[in-house]
Specification:
Elements lengths: L1 H6 L12 H15 L11 E4 L2 E8 L4 E11 L19 H20 L5 E8 L7 H8 L8 E7 L13 E5 L5 H12 L5 E5 L10 H6 L4 E5 L18 H20 L15 H13 L12 H17 L6 H18 L13
Parallel strand pairs: 3-4, 3-5, 5-8, 6-7
Antiparallel strand pairs: 1-2, 2-4, 6-8
Helix pairs in contact: 3-7, 5-7, 8-9, 9-10
Length: about 350
């Protein structure tokens, strides 16, 4: 939690790119990495680009050093470019994405402490994600290692929080089908023993809104770990007190297990670019989420509640009909309702999401 608190502090002013606070965040993160990683060839941790700077490091593999697993999270945030709340004008970005950066760093430390992995591990901390995924976009145009040597990319964006109070134990993993059965099975193994409920969704449900989308477009298999949007998203109330340390630790357990598997496996993922946009399993997972969220329906504005009731009925009907009836009409209903569901969760009062431990 120290990394979350440091990055989300008022001192760093919301980490807007191209500012003194962003440069301070960069120095802080390089100091964190320098203790257990080395720079990638040709750079000294920093990869500057137009009004931004990516931070890159590697833990070199012992047997297949020219094959890579990449983990990443964006470290930039909005500065003061979000609605103020009284005297508070700083968009601290604790869940988005100080917690994601903290998870990437903690995972990498665990890998390093276990001795040299079979494959190399790249840690990529992206800048200018909030401006349209510009840091990761620059990287795939100027890769430091060949992209076809990257076995998989694991992305963290919005971690340690929840969509509603009743969904505190839900977390989301998006896009494992992009690596075919080998990546899906690795994710299944990683999530088998977690006390969290891992909602596994197809790539489309990530809405192309984080850096995994850029790596997927570069033909790299991806998994995107997220807690999705909520009432704290892009507000000044995304402060460190909304982060649940126990949940973040459990999420790090899962992601560490996945990455450790990918670093050592003899059956690495292969990029799949033509997987179905959505599946019957997506409908089953979203139905479970909607059922679990019912105690919090009263936290939604009255205007959102009818749509949620309709979506619940739609999902019950789709799932009851079974996978053989999952057709284009069912897909459209599933996707349209999911967009409304995520939008409704952003209307839950942020203060309702503060864990009881705070």
């Amino acid at each position: 939690m120290d990394v979350v608190a440091d990055l989300a502090s008022d001192v760093l002013g919301g980490r807007p790119n191209g500012t003194a606070q962003s440069a301070q965040a960069q120095r802080y993160l390089v100091d964190q990495l320098a203790g257990f990683t080395t720079p990638l060839a040709g750079i000294t941790y920093l990869q500057p680009f137009d009004q931004g700077t990516n931070i890159l490091a590697v833990i070199r593999g012992s047997q297949l050093p020219d094959q890579y697993v990449m983990v990443g999270a964006h470290y930039d945030h909005l500065g003061t470019d979000c609605p103020a709340d009284g005297a508070d004008t700083i968009c601290n970005g604790a869940s988005d994405n100080a917690a994601g950066v903290a998870e990437a760093l903690s995972l990498a430390r665990r890998v390093a402490a276990s001795g040299p992995p079979k494959r190399s591990l790249i840690i990529a901390l992206w800048d200018r994600e909030e401006d349209g995924l510009l840091g990761s976009t620059y990287y795939v145009s100027h890769p430091v290692v060949p992209l076809d040597q990257v076995v998989a990319y694991v992305n963290f964006d919005i971690q340690g929080t929840s969509m509603t109070p009743a969904l505190r134990d839900i977390t989301v993993a998006v896009g494992a089908e992009t690596g075919g059965p080998n990546l899906q099975q690795a994710l299944d193994r990683a999530t088998a023993s977690t006390p969290l409920t891992e909602l596994k969704l197809s790539l489309l449900f990530g809405q192309g809104r984080s850096d995994h989308a850029v790596l997927f477009g570069a033909h790299v298999p991806v998994v995107f770990f997220t807690d999705a949007n909520n009432g704290c998203y892009h507000t000044v109330n995304d402060e460190v007190d909304i982060i649940d340390p126990a949940k973040l630790d459990r999420q790090t357990d899962v992601s560490t297990a996945l990455v450790t598997d990918l670093l050592s496996t003899s059956t690495p993922p292969s990029w799949v670019g033509n997987a179905p946009a959505t599946t019957f399993a997506d409908a089953q997972g979203l139905l479970e989420v909607l059922r679990l969220s019912q105690p919090d329906l009263g936290l939604l504005p009255a205007a959102d509640r009818p749509a949620m009731s309709v979506y619940l009925e739609d999902l019950q009907r789709i799932v009851a009909a079974g996978p053989t009836a999952f057709d284009a009409a069912a897909t459209a209903t599933l996707l349209q309702g999911a967009v409304k569901l995520v939008a409704a969760f952003t209307h839950v009062d942020c203060r309702a999401l503060v864990p009881a431990t705070h």
